[in-house]
Amino acid sequence: MDIDDIRFRIAASRRMLHRLGCDSNVGGHVSARADEGGFWATGFEYFDQTTPDRVARLNSDLEVVEGTLSFSPALNFHARIYELRPDVAAVVHLHSHYISVLSSVEGKTVGMYNVGAVLFHEEQATYFDDGYKAHVSVADALGDKRVVIMKNHGAIIASDSLENATIEAAMLEQAARYHLDCEAIGGTEIALDEVLNGKRMYRLHFLPNMWESNLERLRRSDPDLFDHLTS
């Protein structure tokens, strides 16, 4: 297995999310669209437990076609997102602390209170299952956005690569923390022109460099992960 193997990169993604403060108990999931069809994902476990051999490939009916995986109903919406959004290459589902706190307010999204939040300008939808909207899935609520905030639950991040989805998920948690702290002291949001310029620059430069930097940090913090590489 080499460092570009999707199973290794999903395990690395989950380790990064743990190190960046996005633990979601055993309920968080990271998936990536498979070139062979379906998608790669993991079962119920903490982010920092994941190794490449615990990543499996499922088809659109959630049948395991490669590897072993305990079924998680949360993977249903991953399959639905891949079906509805051919532009999406990876999905991250989090129950991290600050996102979950913010999600307790119906319809609330992350505001532009810090520079990292600009990634999510006009990229957020909300979802609230009140028991009367069973026909509206989380994937439908996502629409053409990158993020859906799930009421009293957490968030889903859908992106054009696994690497971007991982860093966007970590930045969403950080932005939610800034939002809540800034609101508490009467802080104000970034001006729109700065948001628009910052969003372009952050997508172009910040996301790829954050992935590479955190991968290097994992070499020191999680050497057992790299033991799975053969080259």
Give keywords.
231 residues, alpha+beta, L-fuculose-1-phosphate Aldolase, 14% strand
Q: What would a concise description of this structure say?
A:
The chain has helices spanning 6-19, 75-84, 97-102, 138-142, 162-184, 192-221, 223-226, and strands at residues 29-33, 39-41, 56-58, 64-66, 90-94, 124-127, 147-150, 154-159. With 231 residues, it is α+β, with helices and mostly antiparallel strands. Strands 4-3-2-1-5-8-7-6 form an 8-stranded mixed sheet, with helices on both faces.
CATH topology: L-fuculose-1-phosphate Aldolase
**What structural class do you assign from the helix and strand content?**
alpha+beta
Shape: globular
Q: Percent of residues in helical segments?
A: 25-40%
The amount of beta strand, in percent, is 5-15%
CATH class label: Alpha Beta
The name of the CATH superfamily reads Class II aldolase/adducin N-terminal domain
In DSSP terms (H or I, runs of 4 or more residues), the helix count works out at 7
Low-pLDDT stretches are: none
Mean pLDDT: 94
Total of domains: 1
Rg result: 17 Å
Q: Walk across the major sheet and give the strand order.
A: 4-3-2-1-5-8-7-6
N-to-C SSE series? HEEEEHEHEHEEHHH
What does this structure look like?
It is a single chain. With 231 residues, the chain is α+β, with helices and mostly antiparallel strands. The protein has one domain (6-223): L-fuculose-1-phosphate Aldolase (3-Layer(aba) Sandwich). Helix content is 40%, strand content 14%. Strands 4-3-2-1-5-8-7-6 form an 8-stranded mixed beta sheet, sandwiched between helices. α1 (6-19) packs parallel to α5 (162-184).
